Backbone:
């Protein structure tokens, strides 16, 4: 459970990851819709995949575990393109903020098996996510993340 904000309004210290997953064949980006339940962070919005780091994990191990838990992809289904970018994540409903490490992966898979935390998914065009209102509200380094995604997509052409 995340602790309450301190007097200085600094971000929470709850280590975690965010993962951008790009389909190599279609050049589309996986967005998942968070289930609209009170226990879910950023509930009801479309986003990249998120997850919390366990005590003895590296951030990369956390990324692979969370991807498997949330969409059933195995490590060998993914190719790591960019190592983590530390970014501030904001829950737009509660106002909570915390730092995550964002990874970018490529995959050939398109079939998704969602966990209970998510209600839907879509493979979005880059412009769809760059214009997504909720996406803009969630990440602090939006321009840096967009640049990394665009750089990845250029290598696929």
Residues:
């Amino acid at each position: 459970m995340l602790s309450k904000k301190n007097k200085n309004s600094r971000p929470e210290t709850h280590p975690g990851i965010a993962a951008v997953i790009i389909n190599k064949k279609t050049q589309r980006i996986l967005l998942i819709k968070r289930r609209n339940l009170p226990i879910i962070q950023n509930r009801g919005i479309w986003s990249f995949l998120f997850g919390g780091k366990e005590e003895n994990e590296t951030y990369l191990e956390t990324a692979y575990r969370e991807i498997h838990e949330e969409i059933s992809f195995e490590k060998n289904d993914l190719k790591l393109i960019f190592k983590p970018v530390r970014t501030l994540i904001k829950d737009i409903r509660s106002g909570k903020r915390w730092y995550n490490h964002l990874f970018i992966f490529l995959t050939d898979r398109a079939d998704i098996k969602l966990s209970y935390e998510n209600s839907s998914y879509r493979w979005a065009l880059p412009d769809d996510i760059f214009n997504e209102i909720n996406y803009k509200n969630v990440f602090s380094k939006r321009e840096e993340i967009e640049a990394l995604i665009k750089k990845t997509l250029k290598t696929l052409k």
